[in-house]
Design brief:
CATH architecture of the largest domain: 3-Layer(aba) Sandwich
Shape: globular
CATH class of the largest domain: Alpha Beta
Number of domains: 3
Distance between the termini: 73 Å
Strand order of the largest sheet: 3-2-4-5-7-6
Radius of gyration: 26 Å
């Protein structure tokens, strides 16, 4: 049994003064937490320190956990979530208590919704004054706040429980449907003292934290029979398929069945966007005409109109998912296949020789012809805007598109309204997990955190294409990319506003309209302040030179792209979600 040194008695409203350990024979809970994380394989931690976790961050760094310090907890959390998505191991976020915890919780909630494995660790004030509501320092019942937003949440009150808590958090984050997990570590626990010899007996590594979950043979057979009966089949690839890292197996399945595929935003590149079976330009046709649709790591949520809208009422769905409660959530699923994606695809590939596809021989040629026509129209749109002055989104993208596509190993981070939609449509992806964006909740403000997390987790060059409004959420953490000398190029499309910079104040007062920012903002000066290589560009030739130089440099760069204030429209492709159109105040 582990022994602890007693903490002196105190009145309920007082904060305990932890005893100083007698090194090297004794250690604190902070040491145990750092060692427990290292023991389960955590080698990187993102966060922002302060009371009561500062000393812990130093200890973690000392034992070999890389600490990436941010300027805001939300961005540190976005970095941790992106790290988890790219590596399939939990990204770890460290925050202080109270508002620091709440700032980070935004990212943890977003990780849970998007199925990214992540662990948020926050220090918290001692329990007694919180439970009696006695007004203690940063007194917030953090555990109960987190429970409704995280996949799992645990509080640790004793140092001897820390290794178990870390192992449970790790398992919860990566098993089943991945998600964000919250660990609440109280101040007395962090400061408590144990004999090192007893503490060292506590550490262990969880066995098989993300076990395979095999689908039933009956489910696989039913799904394949339905797929074989289809005249106009289609496959939808979601970011869950990209997360699974079974790229070759998914490719085998698609090419052996000859079924056209439609990738969701972060699944772009899992199969090359230019693949002959890509139906990326035929989304509406697939929704209206496909008779059997197979969802691989994709959810039939709002991003797919919840299976309603343009979808044919006669379409039958096959859904491969690890979470049983996802089935039938919006449309009846004719053939659910419950299991982890690798086991499910393996089982389907094994049985594939036993079925014969009966697709209409004109189905794929018709989609290819439609794609050819639409792609030509899109290319003409880029060409028509290539020399527009002042530049608009398409002018800038006509420059960026060929450069990015000739450098497919660069990871693209992308957010904004028009900047997000137009870049997603313009830039073809060729490799999996090389596009990261605001995903399921369409949350703005993930850009700098995700860019930093992607650069650190992958070791690759990263380009973040940001709307000026989106960049404003996280811009100060561009300094973090500079401080860690990361190969991140940030490209800001500045049209001076949310959607655009020409909103009108209907009250006719001097105040700017709610959607108006600053068309004259010089974001390059912000980059210059932090020591980055910066560019301010106003025409396509300048942008081509700047972008080529920046990504070649392998250093931290910022390119301020001056656009026309009139470039852009409300909410990009989802303006219909706004109950009141802004068209009456824009031109």
């Amino acid at each position: 049994m582990a022994t602890t040194t007693a903490i002196p008695s105190k009145t309920p409203a007082q904060t305990a003064t932890p005893q100083t350990p007698a090194y090297p024979g004794q250690v604190t809970g902070m040491y145990i937490l750092a060692k427990a994380l290292k023991n389960v394989g955590i080698d990187t931690m993102y966060g922002l320190v302060g009371i009561p976790v500062t000393d812990f961050s130093y200890l973690a760094q000392e034992i070999g956990i890389r600490f990436v310090g941010f300027r805001h907890e939300q961005q540190a959390g976005m970095a941790a979530a992106t790290h988890g998505y790219l590596t399939k191991t939990p990204g770890v976020l460290l925050t202080v208590s109270s508002l620091g915890f709440l700032n980070g919780l935004t990212a943890t909630a977003n990780a849970t919704v998007n199925c990214y494995p992540m662990i948020q660790i926050s220090g918290s004030s001692e329990r007694a004054p919180i439970d009696l509501d006695q007004g203690n320092y940063e007194a917030l019942d953090q555990l109960n706040v987190a429970k409704g937003l995280a996949k799992a949440a645990y509080r640790v009150n004793r140092p001897q429980d820390i290794p178990t808590a870390v192992a449970r958090a790790y398992r919860a984050a990566v098993s089943g449907r991945p998600g964000g997990v919250y660990l609440d570590i109280t101040t007395p626990c962090l400061g408590a003292v144990m004999d090192k010899s007893e503490a060292d007996k506590l550490f262990f590594r969880p066995v098989d934290p993300a076990p395979s979950q095999h689908p039933s043979d009956q489910a696989v057979t039913r799904a394949l029979k339905l797929l074989a009966s289809a005249r106009r089949p289609a496959i939808i690839l979601g970011k869950g398929a990209a997360y699974a890292q079974i790229d070759d197996k998914i490719r085998q399945f698609i090419e052996k069945t000859g079924i056209p595929f439609l990738p969701m935003s972060m699944a772009k590149g899992l199969m090359p966007d230019t693949h002959p079976l890509s139906a990326i330009s035929c989304r509406s046709t697939v929704m209206e005409q496909a008779d059997v649709v197979m969802l691989i790591g994709a959810r039939l949520n709002w991003l797919l109109s919840r299976g309603q809208g343009k979808w044919s009422p006669d379409t039958k769905f096959i859904q491969l998912d690890i979470e049983p409660t996802e089935i039938d959530c919006n449309r009846p699923i004719a053939a659910p296949v419950i299991g982890d994606l690798e086991s499910s695809i393996d089982a389907m590939l094994a049985k594939l020789p036993t079925i014969k596809m009966s697709a209409d021989p004109q189905w794929i040629p018709s989609l290819q012809a439609e794609a050819k026509t639409k792609n030509a129209r899109f290319a003409q749109r880029l060409a028509d805007n290539a020399n527009t002055s002042p530049m608009n989104h398409w002018t800038a993208l006509s420059v960026i598109k060929p450069i990015l596509e000739s450098n497919p190993d660069i990871i693209l981070v992308n957010e904004g309204a028009n900047t997000l939609d137009d870049t997603r449509n313009a830039v073809n992806m060729a490799l999996p997990r090389h596009r990261i964006d605001c995903a399921t909740w369409a949350i703005m403000g993930m850009g700098m955190g995700s860019a930093i997390g992607a650069a650190i987790a992958s070791g690759k060059k990263v380009v973040a294409i940001e709307g000026d409004s989106a960049f404003g959420f996280s811009g100060m953490d561009f300094s973090t990319a500079c401080r860690f000398k990361l190969p991140v190029t940030v490209v800001i499309f500045n049209n001076g506003g949310i959607y655009n910079g020409i909103g009108e104040n209907l009250a006719k007062t001097p105040d700017p309209a709610p959607t108006t920012l600053d068309i004259n903002a010089r974001y390059d000066k912000l980059g210059e302040a932090f020591g980055a290589k910066t560019y301010y560009v106003t025409n396509p030739d300048q942008l081509k030179t700047a972008f080529t130089e920046a990504i070649s440099s392998g250093t931290t760069c910022l390119i301020d792209v001056q656009l026309d204030a009139a470039s852009g429209k409300e909410s990009g492709h989802i303006g219909y979600l706004n109950p009141e159109s802004l068209q009456h105040i824009t031109v």
